[in-house]
């Protein structure tokens, strides 16, 4: 595999810009703190003369540096993806409750605006639409495996309004809850 050749000054400019496009290309180590980071790390920048660059994590760790706790370069996930995973877990665990964006933001320690932008950037959907998808999937499971009425299913999975439930279900499953139940029964009978 051909390695990307960047000069010291080019790498220095990349870390000053916090450019995440180079996170998998090289690591930045600081001699005075003995910490290494991703190029996109938002921590305070060191003096230029205290910086070393490494290609591989094992190289930098063998040289005696430890991973930054902020950008977590020793993790396969970026800190942003870690937040997205936390949000997904929170939504899956809380789907029955009334959840608003501020609750989610408070849970992960970010502003609501930044959280929604970050989540959408990494998943191509908003936390609200992701929660709705979870609720529709849970509803579909209940409809096909229980004898609960559609209205009971609606409230059981956390929808506050039957009309919103029917609209979301039709959008997610391309049929009404009643049609879904009928298909499930037909498939179960055959």
Automatic annotation (TrEMBL):
<dbReference type="GO" id="GO:0003700">
    <property type="term" value="F:DNA-binding transcription factor activity"/>
</dbReference>
<dbReference type="InterPro" id="IPR004026">
    <property type="entry name" value="Ada_DNA_repair_Zn-bd"/>
</dbReference>
<dbReference type="Pfam" id="PF12833">
    <property type="entry name" value="HTH_18"/>
</dbReference>
<keyword id="KW-0804">Transcription</keyword>
<dbReference type="GO" id="GO:0006281">
    <property type="term" value="P:DNA repair"/>
</dbReference>
<dbReference type="GO" id="GO:0043565">
    <property type="term" value="F:sequence-specific DNA binding"/>
</dbReference>
<dbReference type="Pfam" id="PF02805">
    <property type="entry name" value="Ada_Zn_binding"/>
</dbReference>
<feature type="domain" description="HTH araC/xylS-type">
    <location>
        <begin position="85"/>
        <end position="183"/>
    </location>
</feature>
<dbReference type="InterPro" id="IPR016220">
    <property type="entry name" value="Me-P-triester_DNA_alkyl-Trfase"/>
</dbReference>
<protein>
    <submittedName>
        <fullName>Adenosine deaminase</fullName>
    </submittedName>
</protein>
<keyword id="KW-0805">Transcription regulation</keyword>
<dbReference type="GO" id="GO:0008168">
    <property type="term" value="F:methyltransferase activity"/>
</dbReference>
<keyword id="KW-0238">DNA-binding</keyword>
<keyword id="KW-0808">Transferase</keyword>
<dbReference type="GO" id="GO:0008270">
    <property type="term" value="F:zinc ion binding"/>
</dbReference>
<dbReference type="InterPro" id="IPR009057">
    <property type="entry name" value="Homeodomain-like_sf"/>
</dbReference>
<dbReference type="InterPro" id="IPR035451">
    <property type="entry name" value="Ada-like_dom_sf"/>
</dbReference>
<dbReference type="GO" id="GO:0032259">
    <property type="term" value="P:methylation"/>
</dbReference>
<keyword id="KW-0489">Methyltransferase</keyword>
<dbReference type="InterPro" id="IPR018060">
    <property type="entry name" value="HTH_AraC"/>
</dbReference>
<keyword id="KW-0010">Activator</keyword>
